[in-house]
Amino acid sequence: MYVVSRNLTSTLCNEPIRDKGLEFRVVNFLLGSMALGLVIMRLFFKKYLSTSKRLGLDDWTILAGLILGVPSVVIQVFFLTPTGLGRDIWTLDIPTLLAFGHYFYVMEILYLTLMMLIKVALSLFYLSIFPGTVIRRLLWVTVAFHVACGLAFILKTVLQCTPVAYNWEKFNGDASTTGHCVDINASGWVNGVIGVVADIWLFALPLTQLKRLTLHWKKKVAAAIMFLTGAIITIVSMLRLKSLVHFANSYNPTWDQWSVVFWSTIEVSVGFICTCLPALRLILMRMYPQTFKSDSYASSSFTSRNLYRRSSISRIVDEGCENDLVDLSQSNLIPAHLQDTLKDNEDGSGARSGKIRIQSLQALPLDENSMKGTARDQTAARKQSAND
Question: Rounded to whole angstroms, what are the CA distances from 308 to 128, 136, 213, 319, 341?
Fold first, then answer.
């Protein structure tokens, strides 16, 4: 009855037809294209250009998100928007409203699935960085929480109305249509609040590990900025909460649900972008080494073993914590009396010729005396060669 009277009022008063479909399409195309490009670039870099040349668990998770994200954008732009999203319900006919209900129901499920995959991917990325036992246990618990919570809300959404078809048949305007739903608005608020809290936990947890890294303060700042990109998702999630006021609780759902879908789209796109920023940094370092070069290798003079330790840890951060191998067989930085150590490492571990894992640098007992001894050995060797 409300819809009929409102339609009559709108017609008699010659009110302009409101339509925010174009704005939604533009945001979808811009953010969707950016997220798609960064994800593809990240996967290509990890598979073909990184030292490991393999995809990690976080990469496979993002790939799964990409597979679902592309059809999500297609549904929103070419199906959900043309069937009334961003328009007043009284300007639409019944078949269009039924189609809107179908697509909105599908998008609810896709949104929950994509956000679960994004949060799991971030957690798995942190697992590839931090070796500490406590932090890894916390991160695995975080992964389990996101999976369990995500699956619970997905199942709730699938079965939120009885029968399931009532999710869209409630828009047919027929009073004889029977069915009921759980409090969708309340469950939306619960999911939104849990999401914000989980986001805060996810970007705060790695920050607690910065003090354990023996890096130059500039590198600590760079690492902090990388981790704080997760705060962007948190901000968007908070802004999305405001849109839930009329979620599943409106006489004009095609208009009022626009803000929910709009902010949900931004949240998912920003989530994909943030998960790709660490890989983007490595790509920029590869493309512009002079601009983004690590200061860990800028100096050729080493005066203590602490510099070696800082250099190796810094390299781990720069290379994406992949435990890459470093060729040291021809390096003049390794004292002669330690060459046997490298050879033993090579022979005992079966590693490729002249390569050891960078963590092994931390075990080398380098100090000023050993460096001076190396210089004397090299000078004596040159004199002996000249005499011969």
Answer: 22, 26, 14, 16, 16
Contact 121, 62 (CB under 8 A): yes
CB 237 within 8 A of CB 195: yes
pLDDT at 353 over 50: no
For residues 262-275, one letter each, b for 16 or more C-beta atoms within 10 angstroms of the residue's C-beta and e for the rest, the string is: bbbbbbbbbbbbbb
Using only C-alpha atoms, the chain has a radius of gyration, in whole angstroms, of 28
Asked if 232 contacts 270 with a C-beta cutoff of 8 angstroms, the reply is yes
Distances (CA, A) of 143 to 139, 216, 341: 6, 31, 40
pLDDT band at 223 (very low <50, low <70, confident <90, very high): confident
Cα–Cα distances in Å, from 121 out to 22, 279, 365? 32, 13, 38
- What domains appear along the chain, each with residue ranges and CATH number? 2-6+19-290 (1.20.1070), 295-369 (no CATH)
pLDDT over threshold 90, residue 161: yes
Q: What is the pLDDT of residues 375-384, one digit of tens each?
A: 555 566 666 6
What's CA 334's distance to the chain center, in Å? 39
> Residue 223 — φ and ψ, nearest 5°?
-65, -40
CB atoms within 10 A of CB 204: 14
Query: What is the C-alpha to C-alpha distance for residues 320 and 196, in angstroms, rounded to an integer?
Result: 27
366 three-class SS: coil
Paired residues of 357 in beta bridges: 325
pTM, 2 dp = 0.74
User: In 3D, which of 60, 139, 107 has the Cα closest to residue 267?
Assistant: 107
**Could you give the CA distance from residue 333 to residue 115 in angstroms, rounded to a whole number?**
47
Model confidence over 298-343: pLDDT tens digits?
Answer: 333 333 334 433 443 344 444 444 433 334 334 444 444 444 544 4
Give the Å distances, CA to CA, from 77 to 21, 22, 201, 202, 332: 9, 9, 33, 31, 60
